[in-house]
Amino acid sequence: MRRWLTEGFVLIIAAVVAFPLFWMVLSAFKPEDEIISADPVPWTTRPTLDSFTRALTVANFGRYFLNSIIVAVIVVFLSILISFLAATALTRFRFRSRTTLLIMLLVVQMVPVEALTVPLFFLMRSVGDSVPVFGLNHLGSLVLVHLAFSLPFAIWMLRGFVAAVPVELEEAATLDGASRFRFLWQVLFPLVAPGLVATSVLSFIHAWNDFLFAKTFIISAVENQTLPLALQVFVKPDQNDWGAIMAGSTLMTIPVLIFFVLVQRRLVSGLAGAVKG
Amino acid sequence: MTAKGQGRTAFAYLAPALLVLGGLLAYPIYQLVLISLYDYGQEQVSGGAPLEFLGLGNYQKLLGDQQFWGVFGQTVAFAAVCVVGTLLVGAFLAILATRVRTWVRMTLFLAALGAWSTPAVAGSTIWLFLFDANFGFVNEVLGIQGFSWTFDKWTAFGLVAAQVIWCSFPFVMVTLFAGIKAIPGEVLEAAALDGASAFRTAWSVTLPLLKPIILVVTIQSIIWDFKVFTQIYVMTNGGGIAGRNLVLNVYAYQQAFAASEYGLGAAIGVVMTVLLLGITMFYLRALRRSGEVL
């Protein structure tokens, strides 16, 4: 009896927690008159794709979606490459400044990156003078900062995965005549792939969700905005097109949701590994 | 391989990471401190006026400014409410999750996963719509149509805090649940055999065993909730009417990019960084004490 009560309670909580997302998807499919009705109801009898059409055509969400994807994918690709090399160096080699580097990696994760907007803004401005692609108003500037912000955690997390690969394997590979380069990319890299999946999802989400830097760096180039910013531009006092906003939010949330569900197990074990070291 | 050779290869592997981190983290941190020491306004940025070195002038101005202290207090209070709320909700649900069948738990975790993964901007917008004065479902259910949640300072803060708790309790819940599951069954059986009550077992056995994990999620939550930016910015439209819903992060942004007081904005950034690094040091020491090794 008591278990039934507890389970009923837990299910109600689950429903409350999921409700905002349900409401988002529902509103995205509602026809306009039902959205701005004074008596909103939690269902619809006339689902329509109108809001999605408006979001993608009028508000040009397709373009911003593409921009967000470009930034996130490049960040993921580069951070996999760089963090894998760095994590290997930090676990497989003994050198003098190793512990110092590890501590710095941990400390740097705690620096509030939001505080760095001012210096990074000026840095990107001067970078843009010589290499416009990485300067203000270009997606390259977003790639650079998100790469820098996701690296410390990615390296920290991958360390555990690299350490879990037995050293004997490397010795065996060397005995079999594999070069260091081949061992790295054909033996070690596939073995730490689960860790790479977890770290890259985090890097992806980080870049995908960013609002502050997109807002700071992409000042006037409307065509280079990313999704979070576009969504915000859409919100106008007293004349919100809630249908299109909810459709945009749905488009923005779905990729992250899919990623999260796919890797949740690895993510949790990866997080545990990162904490345990 | 010789020690020297090891070091050389290691640094070759580390070079790209060090380059990126040095250029885009270390250097900006140095620049942040530097800018905070100057009078850095619109005239200096546009290239005309010369830079004037103020020393600690910006900090003096901040510490003597009533608004700064107001925002500071608000930030601490807001973060405290979010942290306590997140921990309570997360811990409560983690305990409940151990007492239900798998499918019920999976349902809860799936819902939590959804909240966890929603991008902050999307999450804030959804909550704004749910609590919209005229078209919001919440006002319809409560029968208070026309009531604006974002107009009053405290209901606005409450709404943002609720949104922050909604998207951050899943991390606490999942981590604590994993921690509880990792406690060996024999330990609890031994306690039961020794005649300990359920409460006694929870208090004297489970809690001490969970202490390291609780510490990690607490500090992690403090760090996250102290630097909430997106939710405040989106939900209160840049810090509320006349800036009454500002927190430090948004305040720094507004000072720098809205008021063109880059020096002052940087000084606020330095204050925040120092505070968070203080918490981090505490975290590191606690980790060390609980037996973690680097």
What does this structure look like?
The complex is a heterodimer of chains A (277) and B (294). With 277 residues, chain A is mainly alpha-helical. Chain A has one domain (49-276): Orthogonal Bundle (MetI-like fold). Chain A is built from 13 helices and no strands. Chain A has helices at 2-29, 32-35, 50-57, 61-92, 98-110, 117-130, 139-163, 167-175, 180-191, 193-209, 212-217, 227-234, 242-276. In chain A, helix 5 packs across helix 7 and helix 7 (139-163) runs antiparallel to helix 10. The longest helix of chain A has 35 residues, at 242-276. The two termini of chain A are 43 Å apart. Mean pLDDT of chain A is 86; it is low at 273-277. Chain B has 294 residues and is mostly helical. Chain B has a single domain (68-289), classed as Orthogonal Bundle (MetI-like fold). In chain B, 75% of the residues lie in helices and 1% in strands. Chain B has helices at 3-35, 42-45, 57-63, 66-97, 102-117, 120-130, 137-142, 153-181, 185-193, 198-226, 230-235, 248-258, 262-289, and strands at 38-39, 52-53. Chain B has a two-stranded antiparallel sheet. Chain B is globular and about 80 Å long. The two termini of chain B are 24 Å apart. The mean pLDDT of chain B is 88. At the A-B interface, helix 1, helix 4, helix 5, helix 6 and helix 7 of A face helix 1, helix 4, helix 5, helix 6 and helix 8 of B.
Brief summary:
The complex is a heterodimer of chains A (277) and B (294). Chain A has 277 residues and is mostly helical. In chain A, 76% of the residues lie in helices and 0% in strands.
